[in-house]
Specification:
Layout: H1 4-7, H2 10-26, H3 38-52, H4 57-70, E1 121-123, E2 137-139
Antiparallel strand pairs: 1-2
Amino acid sequence: MLTFSQRLHPTGFERAGQETLKLLDTLIVDKVTDIKDVAKVETALKSCVASKQYGLEDILTPLITKACISVLPANRNMFSVENVRVAKVLGGSVSDCSVVAGTVLTRNVEGTVKKAVNAKVVSTPATWKRRRRRQRALCC
């Protein structure tokens, strides 16, 4: 009786992998040439979103597209998903979703000052502590 490793030769897998790569080039349906074109990127992302959030893709895809394109650096190879955050607000629904440029704080403040009238706030992202994910702000 032949064992599994004796029946399947590794070169067969390698040849199948090479043939698959050749076949994949012929199966291209559409290609995104301009990564800043919202309509093209939205079309490409829609199937990905639908595979995880079926039925909500028409609501979420434009928001995801807008968020990703807005944080896209000049060198598109330097794109990081860490630049896009999702914050769940209690009591909200999917139809209430929106894209916000900047930082969204979903927790209550940690200090004693809860309210300030006519305050000026300076936010300095360079002073963020990466491990604690804390933003320092100066209230005047």
